[in-house]
Request: fold
Amino acid sequence: MPIDTHSQNDPLFSCDDTGPDVVTVYFEDLPIPASAGSSVAAALLVYGVVVFRSTPVSAAPRAPYCMMGVCFECLVEIDGVPNCQACLTAVREGMQVRRQQGPATLPSGVKGAGDVC
Ligand code: FES
Reply:
């Protein structure tokens, strides 16, 4: 699935991603620069990503809404772990982020994604 971008090709948000405190995260295998300390959701939105997951029933596209951990619209897969809240997870160098398609189950032995994302 291609990365969806803002309809006017301008991201909704912007930040300085050229300074020394920049890490590289990978979204659907594409490298994107992100300010260290920012959330995954903020980094993806700055990059122009507008679809983070699809719903389990209708496969409707969803994107972050509250940006504070309440709505769960920002669920993504991070480093192979599904159900990670992108708005509450800080970027890390080399982090692999993927869209979450439909329902996801946690790997066996994991009680909550909050401890592993
Ligand atoms: S945007 Fe609402 S929980 Fe992440």
